[in-house]
Amino acid sequence: MLLSVKKVVGDEEMAATSKGRQKVGSRASIVGIAINTLLCVAKAAIGLAAGSISIVADAVNNLADAASNVISLFGFKLAGKPADADHPYGHGRYEYLAGLTVAVLVLVVGVELARGSVDKLLNPSPVEFSGALVVVLILSIAVKLWMMLFNSQVGKAIGSGTLEAAAVDSRNDMITTGAVLAATVASRFIGFDLDGWMGLIVAAFILWSGVGLIREAIDPLLGKPADPELLELIEKKTMATPGILGIHDVLVHDYGPGRVFASFHAEVPAEVDVLESHEIIDDLEVAFLKDESLPVTIHLDPIVTSDSHVGELRSWISEDVKSIDPLLTIHDLRIVPGENHINVLFDCFEPYSCTIAEDDLKKQIAQRVAAQFPHHFCIIHIDHG
User: Fold this and answer.
1) Is residue 190 within 8 Å of residue 93, measured between CB atoms?
2) pTM for this one?
3) pLDDT confidence band for 301 (50 / 70 / 90)
4) pLDDT for residue 8
């Protein structure tokens, strides 16, 4: 197994590049096409000879898997196209579109198999049991086990959700083929034909898998939340940089596997020369690109550190808002003294999980600040994310 994966992945540095990733994904797809086609032919032959709708259903499932591999192959090819004037961020989302097409195909197959199974229940016919039938199904389970391990390892090696989904699909195939085998053997000994029922169960399982695959394919197209590990990496690397005091407003844009861009605000002392802070930010952007292959755009955000009252306000409000919701944070705090009161201006980040209305949240924070710091008037901007 490890040897096969190494042959497909090849050199790790090559596989990490966009072109290398395309080659590895294409090779894995071709392997899937060949194996699933052979399984389909073998199962269809034995299923038709035995008159088993569940085995034919399993064969059609393998045919759908082969078609999925073909779509994945084209997805990798198209996703590997370089950026151009019309698509400055590349064509990486073709891989997501390929995954969505595969998911829809799986649903169509599931519906057709369900129809065939219902027909078998309404018009039953005996299943011819044979040793060859059992051998083919056992071999199919073994092959699908190999494919599950193969796709999982190659998918992880190149960070491909498409191949990791193929690994899950192979695992599902093992379960469904095992169920078909169990029903075929049980029918012979109990004298009751389970074929139509098992075909219906296989179809239901395929439909369930298809719905899950559609959800997984749609999420990155619609814009799912950034990978928590990536966010943690960005924060740790930034906060470990001398001269940077804080980070906020992190945005991650996903244009396909291996084509992720990020932007965020980095807080620096306002008292430090702007050219010095700007150099720190530039060096950090270069470091992200060199070390993580992550293009980032960083906004320099100066904050006052010499005014002790501003520091006290920032520290107190930062901790106090967490009593309203632990995920609330503030940034960009500054004060503007007036004749009768002091204006305190800042942004408050409110996660989507917080159900407090925006106006109510502003009112709560303002009241708590005024109670602690009389004559302070809050002007709050709510960030959502």
Assistant:
1) no
2) 0.64
3) confident
4) 59
